[in-house]
Amino acid sequence: MASFRLKFEQGLRARNVDVTHDLSVKSDAVLVIAGTRNLLPLRKARQRGQRIVQRLDGINWVQRVRWTGPRYHIRAEYGNALLALIRARFADRVIYQSQFIRKWWEDWYGAAKVPASVIINGVDLQTYTPNGEHDRPTDRFRLLLLEGSLAGGLNSGLFHAVSLAKKLSAKFPMEVMVAGRVDEATQLKLQSKVSVKLLGTIPRDKIPHLIRSSHLMYSAEVNPPCPNSVIEALACGLPVIGFDSGSIKELVTGDAGRIVPYGGDPWKLGTPDISALAESAVDVLTKQDQFRAAARQRAESAFGLDQMVESYLKVLLED
Q1: In whole angstroms, what is the distance from residue 212 CA to residue 310 CA?
Q2: What are 56's strand-pairing partners?
Q3: Taking the chain (319 residues) in consecutive chunks of 10 residues, what is each chunk's mean pLDDT?
Q4: What is the residue extent of each domain of the chain?
Q5: Are 238 and 292 contacting, i.e. CB atoms less than 8 angstroms apart?
Q6: Does the reported pTM lie above 0.85?
Q7: CATH classification (class only), 2-122+304-317
Q8: Which of 39, 45, 108, 308 is the most exposed place for a label (fewest CB within 10 A)?
Q9: Domain spanning 141-302: which superfamily?
């Protein structure tokens, strides 16, 4: 959410659109990024005639299929209830970040009673670009994981990435680079003959360099709603591989990467088909120029920040 907010505000100010975070200020429209606990000020804004637009991400679900601890479970269920309440009682318009998210919300909570649309996330194509400094190794292939968190109940993708790298290491020298939060318990469970480097959470301004310094990204989240990391990778010319779950096929098309069938039920966090993913990764790694060019082309055609901002403004300000 923070990533989106910063990019969106940047795009608004470039168009001389004033931005405030104060709900008590009279404005033309209010954009609720997911949810807010400030329901009374939100209701007052609606009563003043301000349009309320809710931008929806996915629904918390992992806590329903595996033990994530009481704190995460309670927070996740509370978050779902708050998002659903705003969608049902406060929003005048709803924006979903992908077709997958729209279908998900409509399957679980029914169709919204207000106009709804899908707007895919965008990225600054001048900041996230293949052109720039990098430290991409020449003696090995680097597999990148770039996630907000791979901790606790969200760590399954990390173990799958290590299994993938192990299979690929039979053909190529491999290393796994992980950017994102990984808890100590998960770190202790990691066992691999392939080098795994845990970077933790890195500053946003370092991400383009990190992406350019890799050969391949693995989208580790299961049922990803609309991962910014994938869009940023494509913009930097980094091909993406992953399993067919969530919105990933809406983002990664053609030779921008390779998406393969999960091989099980992703909603039950079953073990995916690592062998199939490894086969597709070999194709990407041996045809780097082709896939890197296609990744950038995909970003330029669909994920420009200007395109996203204009689409949001139409929903926020136009009838």
Answers
A1: 28
A2: 96
A3: 85 92 93 95 95 96 89 94 97 97 98 97 95 97 94 84 96 96 89 91 95 97 93 98 97 98 92 96 98 98 96 91
A4: 2-122+304-317, 141-302
A5: yes
A6: yes
A7: alpha beta
A8: 108
A9: Glycogen Phosphorylase B; (3.40.50.2000)
